[in-house]
Write a structure and sequence with these properties.
7-stranded mixed sheet; Aspartate Aminotransferase, domain 1; 4-stranded antiparallel sheet; 13 strands; Aspartate Aminotransferase, domain 2; about 350 residues; alpha/beta
Length: about 350
Amino acid sequence: MIIGHGGNIYDVAAHLGCQPTDIIDMSSNLNPLGPPEDLSGHLISRMDSIISLPEVNSKKITSRLADRYGIPSECVLAGNGTTQFIYSIPVALNIRKALVVGPSYADYKDACTMYQADCDYFLTRDEDGFASDMDALVAAVDGKDTVFICNPNNPTGMMWDRSDLEELCRAFPETFFVIDESYLPFAEDSYTQSAIQLRLPNVIVLNSMSKIFRIPGLRVGFLMAPVALIYRFEKYILPWSVNALAQAAVSYILENPTIIDAFLEQSRLFVKQEKQIFLEKLGNLAHLHVFPGSVYFVLARLSGTMRAQDLCDRLLVDRILIRNCGNFNGLDDRYVRFSLKDRETNLLLAHRLCSLLG
């Protein structure tokens, strides 16, 4: 397991001698507006559900999600977060040679390593704005049995053009493509943009509700794929993987489309506006280059003498926690990531960055 995921507020609070709630966590990529209104109240009303076992295979919520995407319910599995699926992929697919399009989430390679599967990286480059060179990527995919793509990507924020993604997946019909769409709900038309709509036999989609609905503590995620691939995963899914309150939360979300669609639209508009204001406040800092990306978190490169850990330490004086990206394969100790929050907090961070890097 990689040491240094975002959101490690407990260790930071212990180091600073404060409470975790005193930390301004801008290291973890979560919707600043979430959870949706009334979700907490709904969960409180469902507390009695914890005295009984939850539905063993989560069929109710998988059926609801399938309806949302217009696919058969047999094409969806629910699990204890997408992490559970990531760590079952190497054994379920019998991976021998994998490729991660990076820099990206470390757990893809960690999962392969756990099962002694070879895993290489195809690294996009800073000077290209972390966009993929498709010709070079095609050459890198050749000979691999599985490819991991995070779309939109963490930490770069880059989003694939759907036509390019489809062309790549069709070009290698014998290769499995695992598309992690944890951040796709922040994009417009996320349901129609999902790779599951490609209906290709070699495409597996990971779907997370943790980020957009801000419920990471409930640990619930989905895997969507053709039925033939679902069969391969079912044997590795433990019974009662999704707890009763997590199932209740997903049921509320999927059974109230009017409320949730309004929440999604509000979230997209909010993060778009606040990100624009944040970037404008940074101006043209001499020692900070920002990669705008397509989502609400921001990857940035430091120049000059300051390095990522230096900046993290100086911001912790104000109890602001950001993500040091030095442990992403393909990045180094010059890169940091900011996950935006409300305007007041974002402006506080912008002010501190300008004072430290201006």
